[in-house]
Design a protein that fits this description.
The complex is a heterodimer of chains A (about 500) and B (about 350). Chain A is mainly α and about 500 residues long. Chain A has 17 helices and six strands. In chain A, the strands form three sheets. Chain A has a two-stranded antiparallel sheet. Chain A has a two-stranded antiparallel ribbon with strand order 3-4. Chain B contains eleven helices and two strands; from the N terminus they run ααααααααααββα. In chain B, α3 crosses α4, α7 packs antiparallel against α10 and α8 packs antiparallel against α9. Chain B starts with a helix and ends in a 30-residue tail after the last helix. Classes of the chains: A mainly alpha (about 500), B mainly alpha (about 350).
């Protein structure tokens, strides 16, 4: 493999890995903030216990998201220096703004949240998590705006003397239509991911044996409801935004990517939808196809009889436009990553709906009035007297948190590999963006990152399971306090101070 | 003044901020096996003293990197690809260190904690050295050809001047950490941190003065311009502040000593950047190939947008980071009977604090 392939593998591995943690961070941050706010609003201790429980999972996950994010910021310059030099005027700006606006906000306010239980007034403490979560959302906006520019470059001029892309309109770059379609899709996916994690863990707790005590069961029933509803709303939003994005890319921005995603080789009017396509291994032509007539035309354009361009025709068109070379991504990868993304997304939504159904309160089914005593004592899960159904639900609870992770990965592989051979679509080829480092250096970093990330994944997974199994601990009520008045303490006085001390958090 | 000059200054400020803040995080990590050897409580106190702030401190680095990318794409591209292997090592160190802070207390096992303690130590030591080596090489220049490609290899970076730079940042950050711990902890740990700062301070004075003198004597871009003279003045200020910091530490004036050492780091970074100016990455092959604030900078529109964004948001960042330090300004010490971290905090109201015996 040459430097280009090695650099692409490294970017792919490190980025996919990083994005395992990002959606959980974004979605779960808001859910944990919601739980803490619920605790402050209702005074029910279960919300505090849930805040601490899911907060721990959030932090275990966040740690890896942060440290793998540093690599992301550096490897544009390390591995893609020709690209960085060419596009830094435009692409660098959102990255710098992301650090200034979002990274500071997340890290600082999360530090306050972790260590501030006994230092901040309750509302301020809850606010720090809301602010940190907002920071993650801002971060996503800027980095996705940068990515959207690679997918659909706008607001630039090209300087033929310096071979650099210069900023023509910052507003156009920030409000790129590809970004306006892509950002909601990614964020909806984050809520699907975090909702699935919360609901999956909660259902597993409700089904585990020996059974958890009634207090925990009631708490996890609430968590399950919150998680499942978040996941379902997220899934619906993912579908709507995904449809918008697909139409935009098929008809305007990257018809080749969508043709590859549908394994549509020849331009068709109307175009059929591929239920199953088996092609040659290199993806240059189909061997066997099952299709539904006209459906692709409708999905791609909203019109049952519209034309959809095929791979071979687009290739001919691009050769005429950009010169000789292949403009076809690896079709089987795009085709299957697209289908995996859609498939697991739908399955996750289905499981979330089933979860809500099986944990519905009996009294509602029977039309009974609200009975508080009932709520505090019994959490029934429908049908679990049948062993096969109980086992099925346990399997569903375990795989639910994993499904969106697979879906997110599939989505990114489709969108990034589907853009190839371009690094900036229609402007700059990936092969022109790579650094002039030796293959040995890049191979070394590829191996080191892969091994290190692998080890960290095992450690992280082990910790997640440990804390999931641990269940809700009986938390003491936080000793929320306002920062004591008076100047900064210097000298021996603080040894005894006001007589209060923080628990050591780490 | 051109906007590109402003961004050169701003990037210098970001690096200076990074070294002042992450400097004591690194120092605390480096001192972990030495000051925290008595029992686990000391280690926990040390880690908790930087716990709420280390991640925010690290963002200064990310912002410096991002700002370089946006304001000087050619600098970012040439520097990050040239320093490929050193940066790889720094990244690995920062990764294991960051994970170690968060995961160390997550299992109640001595082996588990010991492993993460090593990760914190190495993850602090390695960047503390390599940042100095990297900055030494940036000021000294690296073999860049006409295509702005680095033509050296890993051993190009291991010259005596840059290695002295590495030693300087190592001892300076270790001193910074010791002064920070003396300021932020209590009892025996505080006393040991104070003593350690005394020893390390002497080494820091020798190494730092040597490195800065060598910089001013050999690697200033200009001997006559205002920047060249300012660089000498800043280096002198750094040396004086360092001596003052060590002296104040002897007197037990912990806050003032820490502040003086922060001035040392700020002035030293400023001296390096003014020595570098108007280059951003000199070429040792030919001055014609050097990257400068003029030829490496982004176009005016990008710089203007970035300037507006920075003017609006940087004050907020400074304000809430300062507030965080205010919230956690109290000295950290271990609650009684917490020699080992309980899996769940015991359900009791806050207890009166006593020193660990």
């Amino acid at each position: 493999m040459d430097v280009l392939d090695l650099s692409r593998w490294q970017f792919g591995i490190t980025t996919v890995y990083h994005f395992l943690f990002v959606p959980i961070t974004i979605g779960l941050g808001f859910l944990v903030a919601g739980f803490e706010t619920a605790w402050l609003r209702t005074g029910h201790e279960r919300w505090l216990r849930l805040t601490k429980f899911y907060g721990k999972l959030f932090l275990i996950n966040f740690a890896l998201g942060v440290v793998t994010g540093i690599v992301q910021e550096f490897q544009f310059g390390m591995n893609w220096s020709a690209y960085s030099r060419a596009v830094g005027n435009i692409f660098g700006a959102p990255l710098a703004i992301e650090a200034l606006l979002a990274f500071f906000m997340e890290s600082t306010f999360l530090g306050l949240w972790i260590f501030g239980w006994d230092r901040l007034p309750p509302k301020v403490h809850a606010a720090t998590m809301w602010i940190a979560a907002t920071g993650t959302l801002l971060s996503a906006y800027f980095i996705l705006a940068a990515n959207a520019w690679m997918q659909h470059p706008v607001g630039y001029t090209y300087n033929t003397k310096t071979h650099q892309y210069n900023l023509a309109s910052f507003r156009d770059v920030m409000f790129n239509p590809a970004q306006l379609a892509g950002f909601p899709h990614v964020i909806a996916g984050c809520f699907l991911t975090a909702g699935s994690l919360v609901a999956g863990v909660a259902l597993w707790q409700l089904l585990r044996r020996p059974a958890i005590d009634a207090g925990q069961a009631v708490a996890f029933r609430h968590a399950l409801k919150a998680g499942a509803i978040t996941a379902i709303v997220g899934a619906v939003a993912v579908m709507i935004t995904g449809d918008t994005q697909a139409k935009l890319f098929t008809t305007q921005y990257q018809p080749m990517k969508m043709a590859a995603a549908e394994a549509l080789y020849h331009t068709a009017t109307p175009a059929p939808f591929s239920l199953l396509t088996i092609g040659t291994l290199n993806g240059t032509r189909p061997i066997f196809q099952i299709t539904l007539p006209r459906l692709l035309s409708f999905l791609a354009t909203g019109n049952w009889s519209a034309t959809v361009h095929g791979i071979d025709n687009l290739q001919a068109q691009y050769q005429a436009q950009f010169g000789p070379g292949s403009y076809i991504p690896i079709v089987p990868v795009i085709y299957w990553s697209f289908r995996i993304m859609v498939g697991v997304g739908l399955l996750a939504a289905l499981i979330a709906i089933v979860m809500l159904w099986v944990t519905r309160r009996e009294r509602r089914a029977r039309g009974m009035d609200h009975a508080p005593a009932d709520e505090e004592t019994v959490v029934r899960i429908r049908g679990t007297d049948r062993a096969w159904w109980r086992r099925t639900l346990i399997v569903a609870a375990v795989i639910l948190p994993l499904l969106p992770l697979i879906g997110n990965t599939g989505g990114w592989i489709m969108t990034e590999m589907g853009r190839q051979p371009w690094i900036v679509y229609g402007q700059m080829k990936t092969s022109a963006g790579v650094s002039s480092n030796s293959a040995g250096e890049v191979l070394a970093s590829l191996i080191i990152f892969t091994l290190l990330y692998g080890v960290l994944a095992v450690i992280e997974g082990g910790l997640m399971l440990k804390y999931i199994r641990g269940g809700l601990t009986s938390e003491p009520l936080p000793t929320y306090g306002s920062p004591p008045a008076g100047g900064p303490e210097d000298g021996a006085g603080s040894d005894t101070g006001s007589g209060e001390t923080a628990e050591l958090v780490y | 003044m051109h906007l590109s000059d402003l961004w050169f200054i701003l990037i210098a400020v970001l690096w200076a901020g990074y070294f002042v803040l992450e400097g004591f995080d690194f120092g605390t990590g480096i001192l972990l096996p030495f000051l925290g050897r008595a029992h686990d409580n000391d280690k926990r106190v040390m880690i908790n003293s930087i716990g709420p702030v280390w991640d925010g401190n690290e963002v200064w680095l990310l912002t410096a990197g991002g700002a370089t990318f946006a304001a000087f794409p050619a600098w970012y591209a040439a520097m990050f690809s040239a320093f490929y292997l050193p940066l790889l090592i720094i990244l690995v160190a920062l990764i294991i260190r960051g994970v170690a802070f968060e995961y160390r207390g997550k299992r109640d096992s001595d082996r588990w904690r010991a492993g993460w303690d090593s990760a914190i130590f190495l993850g602090s030591l390695v960047p503390a050295v390599l940042w100095g080596v990297a900055f030494g090489n940036i000021v000294r220049g690296i073999p860049l050809n006409a295509a702005e490609h680095f033509t050296g290899n890993f051993f190009t970076f291991l010259n005596l001047y840059a290695l002295l730079g590495g030693l300087t940042t190592l001892v300076l950050f270790t001193l910074h950490g010791a002064l920070f711990l003396a300021l932020r902890t209590t009892g025996d740990l505080r006393a040991r941190a104070n003593r350690t700062a005394g020893y390390v301070g002497v080494v820091a004075i020798v190494a730092g003065a040597g490195f800065l003198a060598w910089t001013e004597a050999s690697y200033r871009a200009s001997n006559t311009s205002g920047e060249g003279i300012a660089s000498v003045a800043l280096a002198a200020l750094a040396a004086v502040a360092l001596i003052v910091a060590v002296f104040l530490n002897r007197l037990g004036r912990e806050g003032a000593a820490f502040a003086a050492n922060a001035v040392t780091i700020l002035a030293a970074v400023a001296a390096l950047f003014t020595a570098l100016y108007p280059n951003v990455l000199p070429s040792t092959i030919s001055p014609a190939y050097s990257l400068t604030t003029a030829n490496a900078a982004s176009e005016a529109r990008t710089l203007a947008v970035m300037t507006v964004v920075a003017c609006i948001f940087l004050p907020f960042v400074l304000a809430y980071q300062a507030w965080t330090y205010w919230v956690f300004r109290k000295r950290v010490f271990a609650p009684a009977g917490s020699a080992k971290r309980p899996t769940s905090p015991p359900p009791s109201p806050p207890r009166p604090a006593t020193r660990p015996s």
